[in-house]
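Much of our argument rests on the idea that a fold can be written as discrete symbols. In the encoding step, the backbone of a single protein was reduced to a row of integers, each denoting a local shape. We regard such an encoding as a compact summary of how the chain folds. The record that follows shows the chain in one-letter code together with its fold in token form:
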Amino acid sequence: MRGIPLMLLADGHCLRGQALAACGRFGDNEDVDEVIDDFRAVSLETICQLVAAGFGCTLLPALAALPPQRPEPSFVIRPLQSPNDSRRVGLVWRRGYPKAQELALLGDLIIDNPPIGTRSVLTH
């Protein structure tokens, strides 16, 4: 979307680099024009509010764009057209964690009931 400022999370957040790559932009802020991050947003919710107020556009993971998080979005949500644009989300915990069994059950629940807009790429 040329001419519309791209709003991103602050440096160091993994979604920032993924959003730049999805837009075909790489490098630091100095190498990227039309990126607004003077405010150093640290949450997707902050960026969504700024987009809703008309300050620019952003990229959201499907999980952050779907209900119940956004029951009535005040901005347009469009899926990426490339089937290659994706991100991997995993559930991890440290060895010896006392609630490991509960986390494994949570993982099974998510695998058996994947959220809308996601696809499974299980690797065990």
